Amino acid sequence: MLLNYLKIAWRNVQKNWSYALINVTGLGLGIGCALLIFALVRYHYQTDQHHHKYDQIYQFASRFTSAEGEFRTRGIPYPFGQALRTDHPELNHVAMLEEWGEPLVIVPAKIGTGKKIKDKEQSGAFVEPAYFQLFDYQWLAGGPEALNQPNTVVISARMARKCFGRTANVVGQNLLLDARVPARIVGVFADYQDNTDLAYSIMASWTTLKDTRGARPESEPFDNTNSSTHCYALFNDRFTLADWNRQQVSFVKKHNPKNVNKTFYPAEPFSSMHLSEEYGGVSRNLLLSLLAIGFLLVGTASINFVNLATAQALKRAREVGVRKVMGSTRSQLFWQFMGETALIVVAATILAMGIFDVGQALADKYLTGIFRFRFYFSPAVLLWLSLLVMGVILLSGLYPAFIMAGFRPVTALASRLTTQPSGSFSVRSGLVIAQFAISQILIIGLAVVANQLEYMQDKELGFRKKAVVTVALPSVPSQDKSKMATFRNLATTLPGVDQVSYSMGGPPQSGWTSQTTIRFDTRQNEESFSPQQAWIDADYVDVYKLKLIAGRNLQPSDTAREAVVNETFVKRLGLTRPTDALGKFIHKQSLAPLEIVGVLNDYNQSNLRVGIEPLFLTTIATGYYFANISLSSANYQQTLAQLEKAYNEVYSDSFFEPQFVDEQIRQNYQQERTMSMLINFFAGVSLLIGSMGLYGLVLFMVGQKRKEIGIRKVLGASVQSLLWLFNREFARLILIAFAIAAPLSWWVMTGWLANFQYKITIGPAVFLLSLLATVLAAALTVSFQSVKAALMNPVKSLRTE
C-alpha cells in the first residue's frame, strides 16, 4: 500500500511539475533560512555549556544606584577576590580574571630581536589558579599547576603555532609580555570551540599582572571598578547564594563604606551572563525575533503550498470521484495526499540543506559580532530538523488533504466542485493576506533600520570625525613621556600631519568610558551623579575641534591641575550659566583639587544609544594610551606610511595600527548594519516566496478563466480591462494585508527605536515604501501570465474544451 501511495504521488508530481517546482523551491528557501536562524540562536544559547560546572558557576558583578537610575557592569574592584576569600574562607573556589585585549608578545630569538606577535582575534587574560578548577580545558602539554608562580603563562594551540610554528616542545619556552616582561610557558591547551565568551589565547598568572600593569591589584581602592576585571566563584553547602545575598550589605559596609546602599555586588549565574543584555550580553529579544522571522518564512512557504494545493484540488476532483466509486475510503485518500505532501517536503528539505551549507559559508564570511556563528551537529539538531519537517508536512498538507478527501463522488464526477463556499471569504484569500502582511512587516522593518543607520552616520556629533586617526601606544605601567614627546616631534614635522594629541581612551564614541564620584567646590557631600572622566593633553580640544562656550582650554601639563567640563556637567550641578562653574574646584579621591577653567559645548562622547553624560577632562600623562593625529593632506596612504616609520622608530617593539575615527564610529553600529543586511535578505526571500505562490495561483486562474477571457475578447474587452480582471482581487488583498502589517510593524519598530536616545521618527514614507514594494512585486508576477492570457487568440480558447 505504501509503495502504491509513493508511486501515485510521484506520478502526480511529474504531471504537475511546475507546481511541484514552485512548492519545492519555496519550502526549500523557507526551511533553509529557518535552519540558519536556528543554528545562530542555538549557538548563543549553548555558549560555554561544554564546561562541566557550567550551571554551578557564579560571576560577581557591580551594580551602582543613584538618583539618575541604575548602572550595571561585569567589572568588579581589583581587591574583591582577596576580600571575599578573607571574609568567607568556606568559599574554596574563587578566581579573579583580568582581561588583556589584543595581547602583544615577543618570541625571543637566539639571534636577532625576536618575533613580534599581536593577537587581534582573541584576547588574553591574567588569571588566578582557581580559574582552572572552575572551567574545563583540554591540555596538550603541561598544565595550569605552575600558574601560582609569577611570570608564567599557558597558551592555546593556535597561539603556539603563531609563536613557534608547532604545538609540541613548547612548554619551557620563554615569551616577553608587552615586549618587556619575561614569562615562561608552562602549558598548552587545545583550541576553543567558537561558542565561548572565554576565548583567551594566552593566560598569565595573576601575580604577573603587577609587573605588566604597575601597582595593581593590591593598591587599587575598593571603590574603583574596571569593566575588564572579573570574579568567578563556586558556591557550596557551607556558603550558598542565599548566604551571600544576606551578607552582601555588611561586606560593602566593611570594604566600601562610602558607598553603602549605593553599590552592590550581585552574584549572577554564569549560565545567564551571555544572554544578559543589562550586563552587555546578547539580547534574548533579538534572538527570539530572528527565530520568529524563521518561522514566518516557513509559514509563508507553507501558505504557498496550501494555496496551490487547494487550487489544484479542483483539477483532481474527477480523480477523487473515481477513486471513491472504486472503493477508496476517506482515510486512504487523506493519506494519499499527505504522502504527496511528504514527498515534496522531503525534496524541499534536501534543497534546504544545500541552502544551509551555502548560507553558513556566507555567514562566516560576511556576518560579524553576535551574528557570527559556527554550526555544531548534535542529536538535538537532528531531532529539531525532524520536528520541523514533520511540522511543515502537517502545516502544508492537512487542510488540502481534508478538502480533497472530503469531495462527494457525485459532485466531483459532475465537475460542480468549489473550494470556496458561496459568498464567503476564502481560506486561500486569508492565506494570501498573511503572506503579503509578513512581507510588508519585514520591508517596513528594513526601512526603519536603514533610516536609523543613516541618521546615526550623518548626525552632527559635536566633534571632528573626518581626517583624524588614532594609534594605540604600548601598554606600560607608566607611559614614557620622553618617547611621547619624541613621537609628537617626529609626527608634526611630516607634511601631511596637522596636530598630535594624547588621551586616555580612544576617540569620542569609542565605547570606552570611566565613571567616578566627585565633590564640587565647597559642598560637603558628594554629588548624586557620577560624571565620566578622561585624561587628555592640551591639544585634544583642537584636534577634535571641540567648542569652548566659556573660559579657556587646559594648559600643557603632565599632572592633573585643571579641568574642562561639558554643559551637562554644569547643568547637573544646578548652575544656571556656564560661567558660574569657572574658578570652582572638582574634588576627586587620589587627585589634587581640579580648577574648572573651561566649559565645552556638549558633544556625543558616547554612542547614540545613550544620551550625553556629565564629563570632565584633565591632564594626566601617565594615563595616555592613544595618540590622536589630525591629517591635513588628502593623500592619506603616503602620510600613514611616513607616520608608521616615525612610530616604529620610537616604539620598535609595538605595532603601528592606525584607525580612522569616522570608521571607528561606523563600527560602533556594526550590529545594526548586520541586522539591516539580514532583514534585507529575509524580506527579499519572503517576497520571492510570495511571488512564486502568486505565479502559481495566476497560472491556475488563467487555466480556469481561459474560456471566459475568450468570450470577453469577442465582446470587445481591452487588454487593460482583462489585466484588471486578474489584478483587482490581489490589489484588494494587498490593501487588507497593509492594514494589518502597518500598525503591527509600527509597534515592533517603535520598541526597537526605544533602545536609542537619538532616533528617527517613523513617517508615512516608510509605510508607502512597503506598500509600493508589495504592489510592484504582485503586479509584475500577476501581469506576466495575465498578459499572455489577454493576448491569446480567442478562437483558440473557445475551441478548447
Characterise this structure:
- This protein is an alpha+beta fold and 801 residues long.
- It has four domains: 1-47 and 281-419, no CATH class; 57-273, no CATH class; 436-459 and 669-801, no CATH class; 474-653, no CATH class.
- It has 24 helices and 26 strands.
- The strands form four sheets. Strands 1, 4, 5, 6, 7, 8, 9, 10, 11, 12, 13 and 15 form a twelve-stranded mixed beta sheet that branches. Strands 18, 19, 20, 21, 22, 23 and 24 form a seven-stranded mixed beta sheet that branches.
- Strand 2 (62-66) and strand 3 form a beta hairpin.
- Helix 9 runs parallel beside helix 20 and helix 20 runs parallel beside helix 23.
- The chain is globular, with a radius of gyration of 34 Å.
Give a brief outline of the structure.
It comes from Fibrisoma limi BUZ 3. The chain has 801 residues and is an alpha+beta fold.
